[in-house]
Amino acid sequence: MTDLLYAAILGFVAGLLPVYLGLLPLALFRRLSASGRRFLVSFSVGILLFLFADVTGEAVGLSGHTWYGALLFAFGLVIGVGVPFLISSRRNHVKDGSSAGATEIKPLTTYIISVAIGLHNLGEGLAIGAAYAGGQLALTTVLVVGFALHNGTEGMAIAGPVSDVPFRAREPLVLGFLAGFPTVLGSIFGTLFYSDLAGVFFFSMAAGALLYVVIELTRRAQSPKSTLIGIVVGILLMYFTDLLLTI
Questions:
Q1: CB atoms within 10 A of CB 66
Q2: Cα(106)–Cα(85) distance, rounded to whole angstroms?
Q3: Alpha helices (runs of H) in 24-136, residue ranges in sequence order
Q4: Which of 38, 98, 111, 217 is the most exposed place for a label (fewest CB within 10 A)?
């Protein structure tokens, strides 16, 4: 029981807490001009693109361990893309033409961002729990610190699009929970068991969902130049925080 509690604390420090810290600038972001908020959205796209490449690489690497890993990767990717696409299409059909305009971010998109990041963080939590269960305390510390900095940036990836969407005060709390709490669950489960196949499935679903939201956010961009700059800045920020995991 003590090991599970400690694993949960590790997940909290590595995932849930930094995601909420990354959401703290949200009130400031909402006060920016429309062009400033659009830049934040493209900055978020850069972060999400980096995460997409990261989780896809993780899933591909793990799927190569078994012959049916490739099928599981394809299945998870299709689910990750297909489920939010079907939900969004159904909502648009129900609204019968009253849906958000081409440049307006939908509240549903921000929830999909949080769920996609949460699936990614679930895989990170499994890695933390497995390292802790294996007695690799040095590796556990490196993972927790690195993931914490990484996840703080992911919180900003949620804050960018949310700043451009009308939300009630409690909803950013829900979004942060969806993105960060899976790290806690992953840490607990990773302490009990670890499966490469589970990693393939969760990472590939995360990749699919991230791909969906990247497309959704990018097609609402109005300024190609500002969008490109924001994407590059987001990718570079994630790259330099990711370096902490390899130093």
A1: 13
A2: 13
A3: 26-30, 34-63, 69-95, 107-133
A4: 98
